[in-house]
């Protein structure tokens, strides 16, 4: 692979790890991103400004540079673009139609309801908000419902509906979909989990299960993800089995996946599944730490048709907590934190500075940062989590 050119679509902070990995493998890297100066620009050999959703624009750039392969990580909207460019140029990819099944929630559900109907909650598609509002008003008494754009990431535009909030939340979801459509779906009670996996030669390798907790201000937004050895073998087996069935039904030939499920008694329901790594450094930092397996390293070898032996350690032998910050809303004047406390963390990302406004968390863009604690002692990991949370002193202006 040395000196071959890899195009990476998306140059945000979540893509830094895969750019650095590609460089460490001796590859030349071309980054495309919608912004003029994203974090990955300084790391890449070449950079071109192009929206990650602009398939034709990225294809022309790929032709201009004569790329040898193309990938993305942790960025949903880039997945169809990567697949389209690869298919157009005869490079290794998951296939454009496959990519759409993994990035359009309506297409995903329509496909799976015939393959695995038991894992899909009752859902209804609307291509304009007025009909969605009318549907909810006529079904509000028949249970709890949730609205979601068909094409969003990071829970943007995803809300539980109430009679009082339905119009605003459905309209917001519609805007977040960029007018491409929304789903109103029966809300599934129970605990939420995510399952990370890697696919090679059509074989699914389940890697780890995350237990998820949510913000009080929005029960659809993660505030804490844990790998603490507290998932029973029976539940682990059920989730792994369903996850493999979903991936195989969607016909993913290779690559990284991140899936989210709700478990209510004996019922396992798919919330969504993506053909890319989990955000918040899950695919780039957490999974390699827990399992000794690097999904992105395997992915890069795969798109260059290079052999790669998959060896996976039991993720339950180590412990990890990913925690998003929960700060009181308001305009900050001073933020006090001893950075030495973060020196042994797997990840530490604080996205606010003095003078910034902290907002109530309504979607992933409102979260003020996060940290990841990792270790081989469960109690020490939990103590470190509390130490970091309690170490902040934030002063607010009027």
Give an overview in words.
This protein is about 30% helix and about 30% strand. It is an alpha+beta fold and about 400 residues long. It has four domains: about 5-95, Rossmann fold, CATH 3.40.50; about 100-105 and about 190-315, ATP-grasp fold, B domain (D-amino Acid Aminotransferase, Chain A, domain 1), CATH 3.30.470.20; about 120-185, ATP-grasp fold, A domain (Dna Ligase, domain 1); about 320-395, Aldehyde Oxidoreductase, domain 3. The strands form four sheets. The protein has an eight-stranded antiparallel β-sheet with strand order 13-12-9-10-11-14-18-16. Strand 1 (about 5-10), helix 1 and strand 2 (about 30-35) form a beta-alpha-beta unit. The longest helix is centred in the middle third of the chain and has 17 residues, at about 235-250. The chain is globular and about 60 Å long. The N and C termini lie far apart (about 55 Å).
């Amino acid at each position: 692979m040395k000196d071959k050119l890899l195009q990476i679509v998306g140059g945000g902070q979540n893509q830094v790890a895969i750019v650095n990995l590609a460089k460490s493998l001796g590859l030349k890297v071309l980054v495309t991103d919608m912004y003029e100066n994203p974090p990955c620009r300084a790391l890449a050999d070449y950079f071109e400004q192009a929206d990650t959703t602009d398939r034709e624009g990225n294809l022309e750039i790929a032709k201009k540079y004569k790329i040898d392969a193309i990938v993305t990580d942790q960025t949903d909207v880039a997945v169809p673009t990567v697949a389209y460019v690869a298919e157009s140029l005869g490079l290794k990819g998951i296939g454009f139609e496959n990519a759409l099944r993994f990035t359009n929630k309506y297409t995903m559900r329509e496909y799976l309801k015939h393959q695995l109907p038991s894992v899909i909650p009752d859902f209804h598609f609307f291509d304009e908000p007025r009909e969605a509002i009318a549907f909810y008003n006529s079904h509000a008494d028949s249970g709890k419902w949730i609205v979601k754009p068909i094409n969003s990431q990071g829970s943007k535009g995803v809300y539980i509906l109430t009679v009082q909030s339905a119009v605003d939340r459905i309209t917001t979801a519609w805007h977040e979909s960029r007018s491409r459509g929304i789903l109103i779906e029966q809300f599934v009670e129970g605990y939420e989990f995510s399952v990370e996996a890697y696919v090679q030669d059509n074989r699914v390798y389940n890697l780890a299960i995350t237990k998820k907790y949510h913000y009080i201000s929005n029960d659809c937004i993660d505030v804490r993800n844990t790998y603490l050895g507290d998932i029973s073998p029976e539940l682990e087996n059920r989730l792994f089995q369903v996850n493999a069935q979903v991936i195989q039904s969607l016909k993913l030939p290779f690559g990284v996946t991140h899936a989210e499920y709700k478990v209510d008694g004996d019922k396992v329901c798919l919330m969504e599944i993506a053909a890319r790594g989990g955000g918040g450094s899950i695919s780039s930092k957490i999974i390699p730490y827990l399992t000794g397996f690097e999904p992105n390293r395997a992915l890069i070898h795969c798109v260059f048709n290079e052999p790669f032996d998959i060896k996976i350690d039991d993720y339950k032998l180590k412990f990890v907590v990913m925690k998003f910050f929960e700060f009181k809303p308001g305009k900050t004047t001073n933020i006090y934190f001893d950075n030495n406390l973060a020196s042994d963390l797997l990840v530490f990302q604080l996205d606010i500075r003095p003078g910034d406004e902290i907002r109530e968390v309504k979607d992933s863009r409102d979260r003020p940062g996060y940290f990841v604690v990792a270790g081989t002692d469960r109690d020490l990991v939990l103590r470190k989590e509390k130490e970091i949370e309690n170490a902040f002193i934030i002063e607010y202006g009027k």
